[in-house]
Amino acid sequence: QVCAQLCRRPCYCPWVPPRCPRGSPLVLDGCGCCKICARRLGEPCDFLHVCDQSQGLVCDYSSASAGTGATCNFEDDEESCEVNGRVYRDGEVFQPSCKIQCQCLDGGFNCVPLCQEDVRLPTPDCPHPRRVEIPGKCCPEWICEAQDQHLLRDARAVSPLLPYPCQEWGTEWSACSATCGVGFATRVSNQNRYCRLETQRRLCMLRPCPALPAAFPA
């Protein structure tokens, strides 16, 4: 009945086919008569203006009852996810940028960073660390200013006194890294000759490790 109402025979099509936007192929309309541009994801559609089936799109009439009209959508849209205007299928792995990798799962997505999100504290060797973008590399890298290095080298040579009083500050020592035998504990403190925050380590031993049986040589 729809064909009888909307489709005219014979076909009357323009001589020149339409120029389609990027990502929209030329397809036959719903009557199988004239070449039209396939509708893309989220675009309005109807019986004549069909969706791009090569992308798995169908004309979704579920929103038509709300007065917004039918739109092109995935058949299993509940299991897909949309990121930055692009739709990914369930289970698909993608990278919105070179710094993160994501996977579409049950309508949502989980992402993990590909760059180390480390924190570098000032040290005597690098009093002013700074992360910078390196041309040709995705992840930023830590650098130490060359000027700071020269100043530090000069300071070591003359060993000047600090021009201001140093208010000592430090965290508690962490738990020993080993449950038996020699390990190390760490803390952050400015208790050094330059009064700069740095990570400090010291050896620790909670208890000696039990001796191995004679059958198992060390």
TrEMBL record:
Gene3D superfamilies: Complement Module, domain 1, Thrombospondin type-1 (TSP1) repeat. One of its GO terms (biological process) is signal transduction. The keyword Secreted applies. Signal peptide: none annotated. Residues 1-84 form the IGFBP N-terminal domain. GO terms for molecular function: heparin binding; integrin binding. It is found in: Secreted. It comes from the Eukaryota. Residues 79-145 form the VWFC domain. Keywords: Cell adhesion, Disulfide bond, Secreted, Signal. Its main location: secreted. SUPFAM superfamilies: FnI-like domain (SSF57603), Growth factor receptor domain (SSF57184), TSP-1 type 1 repeat (SSF82895). Pfam families: IGFBP, TSP1_CCN, VWC. GO terms for cellular component: extracellular matrix; extracellular space; nucleus. Transmembrane segments: none annotated. Belongs to the CCN family. May play an important role in modulating bone turnover. Promotes the adhesion of osteoblast cells and inhibits the binding of fibrinogen to integrin receptors. In addition, inhibits osteocalcin production. This is CCN family member 5. It comes from Orthonyx spaldingii.
